[in-house]
Design goal:
The protein is of the alpha+beta class and 85 residues long. The chain has one domain: 2-Layer Sandwich (Alpha-Beta Plaits). It has 2 helices and 4 strands, in the order βαββαβ. A 4-stranded antiparallel β-sheet has the order 2-3-1-4. Strand 2 and strand 3 form a beta hairpin. The two termini are 20 Å apart. It holds the Pfam family DUF493. InterPro entries: UPF0250_YbeD-like, YbeD-like_sf.
Length: 85
């Protein structure tokens, strides 16, 4: 495996994708709607084998690294969201 040194070179503004994993699809939809005050797309990607977890992809435009990181941090604050990638 090759490791990349330093930070990736990201040109802003750009479309950014977050993968959100949680147990309640409707709770995730509500949280995302409260956080983002601009256009976004939220898609269901997978359900766990037993149906306990749902994986969703959030795609939105970010203007800079600070905004990208702020959205990530706000998503992580919620107990209903188990993981954000």
């Amino acid at each position: 495996m090759r490791h990349i040194k330093g930070k990736p070179d990201i040109s802003y503004p750009c479309q950014w994708e977050y993968r959100i994993i949680g147990q309640n699809q409707h709770a995730i939809e509500h949280i995302v709607g409260d956080i983002l005050q601009k256009p976004y797309r939220l898609e269901i990607k997978n359900h766990s084998h037993k149906g306990t977890f749902v994986s969703m992809h959030l795609i939105t435009s970010v203007d800079n690294e600070e905004e990208r990181n702020a959205i990530f941090a706000k998503l992580c604050e919620h107990d209903e969201i188990k993981m954000v990638l």
